[in-house]
Predict the structure.
Amino acid sequence: MILGTTSPSLLRNATSPSRRGLGSQGKFPILPRAPLLGELSSECETERLYRGEVNQRKRVSLFMKIACISLGCPKNQVDLDVMVHILLSAGHETVADLGEADVILVNTCGFIESAKTEAIENILEACAYKQQNPELKVIVTGCLAERYRSQIEEEIPEVDAVVGCASNKAIDTIVERLFHGEDHLESYGAKKDFPLGGKRVIGTPAHYAYLKIAEGCNNRCHYCAIPGIRGPLHSRDMADCVAEARWLAGEGVKELIVVAQDPTAYGEDWGKPGSICELLDKLNKVPGLEWIRIMYAYPERITDEFIAAMKRNEKVVPYLDLPIQHCNDTILKNMNRRSTRAELLEVIGKLRREIPGITLRTTLIAGFPGETEEQFEDLCNFVKEVRFDRLGCFAYSAEENTVAAKMDGQIDQETKDRRAELVMQIQTGIMAQKQAEKVGQTVRVLCDGIDEESGLYLCRTTGDAPEVDGNVCVSSEEPLYPGQFYDVLVEDSDLYDLYGTVAK
């Protein structure tokens, strides 16, 4: 394959020229923290998993410089954090500069067209460094590796190893095999063996971290490729979740962000639906944590018990991402979603009544197969009526091996893009008004750091998830410190960010 071209057979639909860019989700150095593994305040067996010394693993005979490219969601970030710990434990080191690396590890996303395109572009970028370093090894992991398996090696032969998610735990062995003369390695495993936890570095800024509580999904939405990639729901042992949360807090994490494909489904595979409530109760008791944020709450699982758990646990911030995807009953049924328009309105209303000031975010799909102009208008009216605090609307992406990709009534790309843009135009007006209403308020923020170009400190309220939502940009003559909380008087706003000064 010629570098710089994409294979039409590998990614038939991945033709979009757009990409998010690398930024915070691209190339980054992963450096060991000091200490890499902190002491925990409890002696239970599950917590001992996170203790011990870095050199406990069998060390490899070759020590390499490894650069990581991280793409996709927070769950993917956690997977990479575990792999990096394994590599550091084996004696390798990580570098930020791809040109300095002996190994480039590309941890990919691959569930929709744009993500696949971005993954392929980054793989090709990594392979291009072989022109200056013929001994360089390129390893592809993550969802694209799991989804396309041998196709990657066949169509991008510059890739030296393709590693499925169940083989992440063997990443040190794979590196060693490559440098002992083996090539074109492939390693996969059963989806039931996907790792749920393990020792890890913290690849995010020191004061916040993601806690993955489950893998896979049983929802079987007709447009979604995730179950085919990640398998069915597999909830992580609750004691293990709490153990990692205690370790993270001991390392200085102030904000714990709970992630899974569907956190509200946690425990259903054990026959214990609603276990997320018990988990929140336990996480709320972890010393050192100040904010607990739940990402992705499916409307049909937002029960009275779940709302009560959010209310009684004071560390759980009033924020939820409800991925509703649509509001029209016919479209929802065709998507294999379990809520109706009336039920969506009921749960949204209940959340706002029971948790005043809650920030609600959602994602929508425009141009699903068979969506009529009337059904699209219904969606637009719903957006105007509900007035979500945050909203993203995406043009439907037909993913191979999904039910929706085989449906009649596929809509042309131009129409899908136009509809998605119209929804975002509506939301833009709503956002501008909601942002303006915050001017004059004093808000509590968590400082993430400073923007060197503007000199403003980048902070977030409970209503702002990192790498997803906007910032509170703060001017201050006195230094502000990452991981510290401040009260800020909001003095101005734009569509995404607020601007203010530290309250006197």
User: Anything to note?
Assistant: The radius of gyration is 23 Å. Residues 442-502 form a domain with the OB fold (Dihydrolipoamide Acetyltransferase, E2P) fold (CATH 2.40.50.140).
